[in-house]
Amino acid sequence: MKITSARFLRSAVDPSGFPEDDLPEIAFLGRSNVGKSSLINSLLGTKGLARTSSTPGRTQAINYFLINDRFYFVDLPGYGYAKVPEAIRKQWGPLVENYLANRRSLVLCISIVDSRHKPTAQDKQLVTWLKDNDLAYALVATKADKLSNNQLKTTLSESRSVLGVDEIIPYSSLTRAGVERVWRTIDASLTGNKQV
After folding, report:
1. β-sheet bridge partners, residue 53
2. DSSP state letter for 85
3. Which domain, by its residues, includes 54?
């Protein structure tokens, strides 16, 4: 997809801050410091649109970015400041649970894991919750450039097994390896084809 425009629209701290125009939304979810903002910036070919930080949990609101005046990228707070199923409930806030459960314009959840580490119990619970709630999702493993090809193959295989999924897209925000695969998944969701 050719990006002709990408701009930060707003931060929402409650549902009244969500856009009301019904444009499709692509949500990005993952642990704090897993590289959500870097992934968003890399996909868009920008450096500072989504704010990155070495401090986990810096994003504490739902951040909306309007892309090509056609759809939104939605940066959700990392685990620790958001909420999905039972065990994550004590850490995540009600804002994100409300968003995931009720947002009709949500067409795809991009669940992000760190390719260097085995998925956590929280990662597994999130994927299970997305499946149980019949939400379209894709798995992306960031920081793939930090591993050798053999290491990456091994960790992706382990992650697929732990998460119970058939596909995880390896991605590097540094080299943009994987960008075409992620955009194909996004394009399919925007045209109404459910990616699971």
Report:
1. none
2. S
3. 6-190
CA distance 59 to 51: 8
The alpha carbon torsion through 185, 189, 190, 192 (nearest 10 deg) reads 140
Residue type, 86: E
Cα–Cα distances in angstroms (integers) from residue 170 to residues 11, 74, 174, in the given order:
29, 20, 12
CATH number for the domain that contains residue 149: 3.40.50.300
Please report the pLDDT score of residue 79 as a whole number: 66
The rounded distance, in Å, linking the Cα atoms of 34 and 144 is 12
> What are the b/e assignments for 103-112, b being 16+ CB within 10 Å?
beebbbbbbb
In a domain, 78, yes or no: yes
Characterize the bridge pairing of strands 137-142 and 6-12. unpaired
Return d(Cα 39, Cα 179) in angstroms, integer. Answer: 9
Report yes or no on 1 lying in a domain: no
- The CA distance from 143 to 171, in Å, is 6
pLDDT in tens, 91-135: 455 777 889 989 999 999 999 999 999 998 889 988 998 999 899
If you search the block for the tokens 């759809």, which residue do you land on? 71
- Cα gap 179→182, rounded to integer Å: 5
